[in-house]
Amino acid sequence: MSHNSFGHLLRFTTWGESHGPAIGAVVDGCPPGLGLSETDIQPWLDKRRPGTSRFTTQRQEPDQVRILSGVHEGLTTGTPISLMIENVDQRSKDYSEVGKAYRPGHADYAYDVKYGHRDPRGGGRSSARETASRVAAGAVARLVIPGVRIRACLVELGGIAIERSRFDDAEIDRNPFFCPDAETAAQWEIALDAARKAGSSLGAIVECTATGVPVGWGAPLYMKLDSQLASACMGINAVKGVEIGDGFGAARLRGEDNADCMRPGTDGPQFLANHSGGTAGGISTGQPIVVRMALKPTSSILTPVETITRDGEATEIVTKGRHDPCVGVRAAPVMEAMVALVLADARLMQRGQTGR
Amino acid sequence: MSHNSFGHLLRFTTWGESHGPAIGAVVDGCPPGLGLSETDIQPWLDKRRPGTSRFTTQRQEPDQVRILSGVHEGLTTGTPISLMIENVDQRSKDYSEVGKAYRPGHADYAYDVKYGHRDPRGGGRSSARETASRVAAGAVARLVIPGVRIRACLVELGGIAIERSRFDDAEIDRNPFFCPDAETAAQWEIALDAARKAGSSLGAIVECTATGVPVGWGAPLYMKLDSQLASACMGINAVKGVEIGDGFGAARLRGEDNADCMRPGTDGPQFLANHSGGTAGGISTGQPIVVRMALKPTSSILTPVETITRDGEATEIVTKGRHDPCVGVRAAPVMEAMVALVLADARLMQRGQTGR
Amino acid sequence: MSHNSFGHLLRFTTWGESHGPAIGAVVDGCPPGLGLSETDIQPWLDKRRPGTSRFTTQRQEPDQVRILSGVHEGLTTGTPISLMIENVDQRSKDYSEVGKAYRPGHADYAYDVKYGHRDPRGGGRSSARETASRVAAGAVARLVIPGVRIRACLVELGGIAIERSRFDDAEIDRNPFFCPDAETAAQWEIALDAARKAGSSLGAIVECTATGVPVGWGAPLYMKLDSQLASACMGINAVKGVEIGDGFGAARLRGEDNADCMRPGTDGPQFLANHSGGTAGGISTGQPIVVRMALKPTSSILTPVETITRDGEATEIVTKGRHDPCVGVRAAPVMEAMVALVLADARLMQRGQTGR
Amino acid sequence: MSHNSFGHLLRFTTWGESHGPAIGAVVDGCPPGLGLSETDIQPWLDKRRPGTSRFTTQRQEPDQVRILSGVHEGLTTGTPISLMIENVDQRSKDYSEVGKAYRPGHADYAYDVKYGHRDPRGGGRSSARETASRVAAGAVARLVIPGVRIRACLVELGGIAIERSRFDDAEIDRNPFFCPDAETAAQWEIALDAARKAGSSLGAIVECTATGVPVGWGAPLYMKLDSQLASACMGINAVKGVEIGDGFGAARLRGEDNADCMRPGTDGPQFLANHSGGTAGGISTGQPIVVRMALKPTSSILTPVETITRDGEATEIVTKGRHDPCVGVRAAPVMEAMVALVLADARLMQRGQTGR
């Protein structure tokens, strides 16, 4: 029941603060004999890395991962895999005022009351910097489920949604927004530039699809895939909503319109729809797993907002430092990692209980 | 890592199938010295009980709970509390065809492939009947957090949403829909009657508010309140979406509009808004916790839908038996129970780690 | 982290007090498709059942187990298996004084201070009666490891040890002591009769051997088989010592005398000794697993001993009621059950992580 | 259910191999506000450090610990504490033959079959080097239980036991054996020198006493202090036996002789004996906790022993490299650390459930 661990048979624990010397993850339960080196992890970290466009924080972190254990001669050994990423570009002085007043939308006040004492530099433990550890752990998880392809993209930013008919998987990596449509990406660029210049920020919706998941993963009743995915996504910084398949939209359908009808197929059943997003009773159905999550706009903004100091005095705060104008953008690789971890864990649990 | 357990310091495990002799829960970790008898649990079960109106299944289950352990002379002893509810009104013959063909939207196919063998009667383990155990366990959880008030209501049914300005807490218990507005309830009645007569079903959105939660509950990073609540709600039958506070709506706000500004108050800080739904960084802020969940329409409908048999042959299926035309209605007491369990667990964990 | 659960992928939770209406266990994670009915469990319970000879408590409990869930048409379904045993022959009046003064060697005082409130009748939750639940759960565990044979016997009682050369497996079930030597059993009978008549009690050492365990079960470093076995045995009532293989005796050997040398064998390696008791680095080696545990003499005796009342007054106590003069005797079936649970769990975990 | 984690509310996870770049531990759940710096940890590591006398391995490791997270301005923050110790003096060439043949008494064979692939250098993950991580984590645990004093010493080495009447706590730190009697230490020196020169090794028994533990820690039934202590100790390299209080000796006492009688005392009850080793029903009684563990002789010896190669061929093996002639010596600080971790965890759990 570690507060900072996630997963069961495949389980990772993260540690580290935004402005400490390093951050890292320990991945436990990885099967032995899988090829793993830093080069299997680095590309995923690079996708999430800050400072790559003007739409992300200008903090320059190389995010170079080191594998400290669990791998011998290029293969995993079944023992814990320790991953470490050094923090390089901390500028703690930017945060000198953060310790004095509570930033609305941030965890400052709650941490202060809960713990009495916290590391305020860069948000400390609550910083999104920690998600680099998740991405590194997720890269390991991908090795456990080689037949599964996991892809996240933004489907809405600042209230501007993509048109489903224009969805182009190939486009996702061609723009700084993980947007599956070039035209929408262009609109987002304008909107995000404007918000940034106005000292404001925007929210986003990220969608992740996992294909190649066989029938039978997920363990009812309290380890349903839906529950695990919801827990995984809702734990990502700034996420306030999660839905599987049609999600909230399903609440507006009639029973017969929401049915994922089946027909005999060439190899196994063929589904005529995927309203359920690839799960039934919390177990994968063999259809693509589809999850969406909503991220609030970045709380760190240059627009002054009303707040109080640690001493309870009224004040206004402007959050300087270097921040993403839309945290949703870099959340896409994080979401992929968390979905990979949930699925890899579910695969191992399924194998453990049923032998398949 | 029990598949059928939930929680950490306060933890419950459920067992039982829809048409087995009984269902039940074992609640572990309950603090000693709390007054507990069947009469503390029964009223909550009665709220969820089937057969109370024409808008719920006509299965007649008294849902009488028995406490088999963990209580002595009316007080909890700190040992496991075993709760049992006998199944009385099973009509397994209604389900004779269920074992032969897969009902779309149900877990039939996924369970069959996962386990190879299942109890198909009434959905077996995947039946919403199991949620009675959660409600019973939730009644125990409420004792652990005496200052917290937890209230769920439907805010949308069949696509018809309540008007926020008409929200009346007192109305919730006066109609069979847990609807906080009499006028909307009347509309829902018409819509649900129509759906029922058409052999169809409707979805719903349920909202739960917990007031009286102090600052500091919830354990970052992987036991954030948000994560635990999302996991708890997404594990309820038919739920496909969860949001905290403004949820998906927050993704459309600008940073300054989403800020929960603070001002000095008479006792502690005063918040000027609650977009975050009572959490920051996964920790409670002292504001009301607000969670919403979306339920798909009941999959068991009398409208024929296309499917396949266990042998892979094409067929059509009509799900007879006794079913709720909208599973969202009876999900409200279940949601309350799950929220109570999450909060009680978070309280004990907070006390364990910090002594407060 | 349930206090009342044991195991990981195969996990059981027990509930119930000595003088409550019933006791029981919920077994979670059992693989599907295994043949299971009450008749697979009852014989193991009968072995542990009280009242079968004058060397065990005279409480008459039929210990009839009921399966309430998780089995359909004679096969496990992969869902939780709920097992219940009703308490029939409680005589709570025998214990009217137990609530007033603390019995030395019993948990009375510690429970009272820890919980403030407890069920004192028959020891409540701390009664060895709870071990019936473990035996029932253990019967399920045996189904998970069909090739493994688990056998416990007493190797010492009241300081009288068996001679190893006279060890006869077939004798174990022919005497009321699970003694592998008829001659020693006769000596124990005399010693135990004398102790019983003197209002005293005796301790014992129980040894359990599991054959047929393949190489590779057990998960280093903190789920070593040794650790899991030690935890399982040390949790049995009255157990104060556990050893694997040569145990404490190994501390007196020289390195070369303690080496389990290997030689090529017809199918796999042949070991020339088994000092290690079937584990190396916490992992099974393919040799028999050998565990021993020491039980203190029954604390409930008719000889008066000095103690204090709940109010802190000096007093003497004589523990009436019906008690085993040597709790070690009936601990043998319990030890078997716990070893079965550890091994079944280890097997599923091994399969989950490595696929074998 | 991490294989490489230990504890519940206070939980640590270790990682690292003997000849990898570093080893480490992540301690999760530590209460906030405790003063912690490297200087609080280093003295405990120094006690366990190799190369300090001719009775331990000559590998020269400074064992300098670094705190990478969880501490800000000298105080713990309630977030995970990452501890890292770099490996400095690996000589992997010494182990070039280890990968080819299985060393009796080592985990080589079991790891190989379990995982198919392992890091054989210095024993890899199964090396006692990993216990440095436990000692570092244990130093953090001590801060959580400030009133508790934990002290381990050797009470037997190579079959030579101390005389209880000569036990002198102050002597423990004055000899290289953690021996509480100078005279016995002198005998051990002779015995161990002889064994070392003969290319052999000796076993030992280590005893740990924790004073200052209040009544009420430990959670029945499956988190009994006894179980947790047994699991913690049996997981230490080379340990094959554990006992609490009189342990195996209790099996030879009569009920009245084993009773820990009570009498009214000046502040709370006074116990007249401590046969139980400070626990009753798995809960602390307020008396000193007394645990003993038996370690087999070091398996790495220069005396040739019969074994097989990875290819199944017969061979003899002599284990070169640098080894402790008695692993029991350096196990004393490790045992202290594990006992500290169990007690700190039990304290937080007790506080969580009961508020005290």
UniProtKB/TrEMBL annotation, chains A, B, C, D:
The record, for CDD domains, names:
Chorismate_synthase
UniProt superkingdom:
Bacteria
Record Gene3D superfamilies: Chorismate synthase AroC
The record lists FMN as bound by: 125-127, 237-238, 281, 296-300, 322
* Cofactors named for this entry: FMNH2
EC number of this enzyme: 4.2.3.5
Enzyme class name = lyase
The molecular function terms of the Gene Ontology recorded here are: chorismate synthase activity; FMN binding
What does the record note on quaternary structure?
A: Homotetramer.
Q: According to its UniProt entry, what is the function of this protein? A: This reaction introduces a second double bond into the aromatic ring system.
What's this protein's family per the entry?
Answer: Belongs to the chorismate synthase family.
Its name, as the record gives it, is Chorismate synthase
User: What's the source species for this entry?
Assistant: Sandarakinorhabdus glacialis
